Sequence to fold (204 residues):
Amino acid sequence: MTLPPWVPGDEHDWKPAPEPLLLVQAFVNTMDVELGTDLLAEAETGNEWLRLSGLLPPGATAGPEDLRAARDVRDGIRALIAHNGAGPEPADEELAVLRALMRSSRPQLTIGRAGLIQIESGPEGRIADGLVRLLVIIRDAQRDGTWPRLKACGNAECGWAFYDRSHSRRGAWCDMAACGNLIKNRNLRARRSGRTGPAPTTTR
Fold:
């Protein structure tokens, strides 16, 4: 599968979600916890990625506050994805960010020649209108059953969003050979050392 140019993370073996859910996955993965990089941290890389992905119109520019809002929305969506992998329920403040986004957006519905109805940014090119598309994609994925398969890697040092294509839907790692074996070996050493719980992982 050839991935779109806006899919980040050359250092990772991708387990891509089907489109358009792939856009949500790529948005979350603009922050690479393992490498400590963030495409939305700086104006140049942030605007480049947002325009390339279609979340920001070609002529629009996201300022520092816009990029901060995008990162906050990303954290909220990341919390939703973590819950898909048996993580905790999203905190109130994480949901509050997404609710605020829905209240502030003014997206437009368009219809193409083939009759396909899509959501596009409003005429002002506001970042909120682009970001709300992600929530609509999530809603549609929840309805068609693909949403629970989008998960965050169970290795807290990674957290990479991956699409679980396993028959059992019980996949927990973005890469079994890397993160999966790392955590399993860590837990094995913990048990052998007499600990009762899993070995701790570092978090951001």
Remarks:
- The radius of gyration is 18 Å.
- Residues 16 and 94 are 25 Å apart (CA to CA).
- The chain has a mean pLDDT of 85.
